[in-house]
Design goal:
The structure holds 2 protein chains of 2 kinds. Chain A is mostly helical. Chain A contains 6 helices and no strands. Chain B is mainly alpha-helical. Chain B is built from 5 helices and no strands. Classes of the chains: A mainly alpha, B mainly alpha. At the A-B interface, α1, α2, α3, α4 and α5 of A face α1, α2, α3, α4 and α5 of B.
Chain lengths: 134, 145
């Protein structure tokens, strides 16, 4: 069982593609969507990583989150230069978020592939509702 | 700021942190409306503050995910490369394109892929259950999205 888990959730990844272009294009698409519409990031990168790079759900979520770090840093710098950040409010939100992040990460590790896929699909549907009924 | 409000904001932060590392998203989809609607902050301030909060939150999430060997830093680097360039392009395009049409198109695409993701997940779950393993970690029968 442990071997099987390792095969599909870490360890060997027979279906993953290693070309450079697909992730660059996926990132660009996420960046354009987020610059245009204010949403993007993970909601674009995760499904495209599973479809075009062959990632399983766990790997797509974790890698998307890693990509968000420099993308958010670039975005936050732009807003900080423009003076559009409320640092006090940010500190309070971050206080909670830093507590919640390890909980979410452990929840992900404990969720099976199918369950994670269903939950992410529901999140996408909720986001689409927010987009279509503003 | 009242103590209740402070606790409320921190709890909203906890929710953002859980969603962010569970789903690999920034959490702006929750934070920006929260700040605009509940705290009556401006759209611009809310987006900037949201990006600042995402930064340390995502770092912590990635550190935990790395322990399980879920992260491909190589792919993340190329995603970020495209993402940063795309962000500037998107901001430029936003000034020249009809935002409403784009939002509707994007919303429909997200809905379609979302439904497809749910049905694939449900199919995997049924296939896993029919193997009689009763094990929620059972590997998927196919590695499609």
């Amino acid at each position: 069982m442990l071997m099987q888990r390792g095969l599909h959730r870490g360890g060997q990844r027979p279906n993953e593609k290693h070309e450079i272009l697909p992730p660059v294009l996926i990132g660009a698409l996420a960046g354009v969507a987020s610059g245009l519409l204010g949403v993007g990031g993970g909601i674009v990168m995760v499904p495209l990583l599973t479809i075009f790079v062959g990632f399983n759900q766990h790997r797509a979520h974790a890698t998307s989150l890693a990509a968000i770090v420099p993308i958010a840093a670039a975005g936050a710098t732009r807003f900080a230069i423009g003076g559009s950040i409320d640092y006090g409010l940010g500190a309070l939100l971050a206080l909670g978020a830093l507590g919640g992040a390890p909980i979410g990460a452990r929840l992900m590790a404990r969720s099976g592939e199918a369950l994670l896929k269903i939950m992410f699909g529901i999140l996408m549907i909720l986001v689409s509702v927010e987009l279509l009924w503003p | 700021m009242s103590p209740q409000l402070i606790v409320g904001i921190i709890l909203a932060g906890v929710t953002v942190g859980i969603l962010s590392s569970l789903f690999g998203v920034g959490g702006g989809i929750l934070m920006v409306p929260f700040m605009v609607l509940a705290l009556e902050k401006g759209q611009h301030i809310s987006e900037g503050t949201s990006l600042l909060v995402i930064l340390p939150t995502a770092v912590i999430g990635v550190l935990v995910h790395r322990k399980h060997d879920f992260v491909s830093f190589r792919h993340a680097g190329f995603l970020a490369l495209g993402g940063i360039g795309g962000g500037y392009l998107g901001a430029e395009l936003a000034l020249n394109l009809p935002a409403e049409t784009l939002q509707t198109t994007f919303g429909v695409l997200v809905a379609i892929v979302g439904v497809r993701t749910v049905t694939r997940g449900a199919r995997q779950m049924r296939a896993g259950a029919s193997l009689g393993s009763g094990e929620s970690h059972a590997p998927p029968p196919d590695d499609g999205p």
